[in-house]
């Protein structure tokens, strides 16, 4: 589970309404929010989706064949210490697995999982050819097989009833009813208009804004995580300047990026609530009451 979303999940749970018919994550990634809600007692259906087919295929494998995935990951992890591979440096072995994954006609989820466990900052990036091009974190050899197997089995257990798709995000939410809870965590602004993309396909602000506008008009209950604040720096155009959304600025902990630079700095996340979700939670004052004053601000 990606660190930032793992920290956010308990915060998002406070904004989870009652009588939810379905949880939908159109940009699921690690599906941190769905996993947390399921572990916290939600027993309804879950729909996780990611336009990135590699991520969707990994989730399919986790849910349908967890033991097989854990065994394949163990073989990949152990191979770096044996035979000819044992003569390679950790970075060289990572590059070998990454090249094999990129060249495969049918990419193996186990290779992808090993790559995810080795890349710098756990930040997945692709080149224009759709090849993973993020470099390895030289400080690690990847999560150990026993720990990885435990996470695979627990995620599989929680997600047994989940639907997995790899659709455009608007197609994913098209059939959602008014009692569904939609959590939108698209790629941050600034990460999709560069040559080195975090997602295979970018998502322009204007396109996403129009999609959110459609959800608002449809009366959908959606919670959106879209831009981040670290100290005085804000990344991206605030959505509530253009749309009828309630923004809340939540302190999520210490900025990992600032820590790497030798600074202690708070990390913030701006969450946006659609009017329908605010109403289901009892109104703006009720939403604000769910957070301590020092951990909440309403952005201008």
Description:
There is one protein chain. The chain is α/β, with parallel strands linked by helices. The protein has helices at residues 3-14, 32-39, 53-64, 66-79, 90-103, 109-118, 145-158, 169-173, 205-217, 256-260, 275-280, 284-288, and strands spanning 23-25, 46-49, 163-165, 181-184, 221-230, 233-235, 246-254, 266-273, 296-297. It has two domains: 8-51 and 167-295, Rossmann fold (3-Layer(aba) Sandwich); 64-153, Adenine-specific Methyltransferase, domain 2, CATH 1.10.1020. 39% of the residues lie in helices and 15% in strands. Strands 1, 2, 3, 4, 5, 6, 7, 8 and 9 form a nine-stranded mixed β-sheet that branches. Strand 1 (23-25), helix 2 and strand 2 (46-49) form a beta-alpha-beta unit. Helix 5 runs antiparallel to helix 6. The chain starts with a helix and ends with a strand.
SSE inventory with pairings:
Blueprint: H1 3-14, E1 23-25, H2 32-39, E2 46-49, H3 53-64, H4 66-79, H5 90-103, H6 109-118, H7 145-158, E3 163-165, H8 169-173, E4 181-184, H9 205-217, E5 221-230, E6 233-235, E7 246-254, H10 256-260, E8 266-273, H11 275-280, H12 284-288, E9 296-297
Parallel strand pairs: 1-2, 1-4, 2-3, 4-5
Antiparallel strand pairs: 5-6, 5-8, 7-8, 7-9
């Amino acid at each position: 589970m990606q660190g930032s979303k793992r920290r956010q999940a308990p915060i998002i749970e406070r904004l989870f309404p009652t009588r939810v018919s379905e949880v939908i994550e159109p940009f699921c990634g690690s599906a941190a929010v769905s996993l947390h809600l399921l572990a916290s007692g939600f027993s309804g259906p879950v729909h996780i989706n990611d336009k990135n087919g590699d991520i969707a295929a990994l989730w399919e494998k986790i849910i349908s064949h967890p033991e097989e995935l854990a065994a394949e990951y163990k073989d990949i992890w152990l191979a770096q210490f044996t035979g000819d591979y044992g003569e390679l440096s950790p970075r060289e072995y990572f590059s070998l697995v990454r090249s094999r994954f990129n060249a495969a006609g049918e990419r193996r989820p186990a290779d992808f999982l090993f790559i995810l466990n080795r890349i710098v900052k756990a930040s997945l990036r692709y080149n224009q050819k759709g090849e993973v091009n993020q470099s390895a974190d030289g400080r690690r050899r990847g999560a150990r097989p026993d720990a990885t197997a435990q996470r695979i089995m627990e995620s599989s257990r929680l997600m047994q009833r989940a639907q997995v798709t790899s659709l455009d995000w608007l197609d994913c939410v098209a059939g959602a009813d008014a009692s569904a809870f939609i959590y939108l965590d698209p790629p941050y602004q600034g990460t999709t208009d560069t040559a080195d993309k975090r997602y295979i396909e970018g998502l322009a602000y204007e396109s996403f804004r129009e999609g959110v506008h459609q959800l608002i008009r449809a009366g959908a209950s959606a919670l959106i995580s879209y831009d981040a604040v670290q100290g005085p720096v804000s990344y991206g155009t605030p959505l509530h300047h253009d749309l009828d959304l309630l923004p809340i600025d939540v302190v999520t902990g210490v900025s990992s990026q600032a820590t790497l630079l030798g600074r202690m700095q708070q990390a913030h996340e701006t969450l946006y609530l659609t009017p329908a979700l605010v109403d289901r939670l009892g109104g703006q004052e009720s939403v604000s009451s769910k957070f301590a004053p020092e951990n909440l601000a309403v952005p201008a």
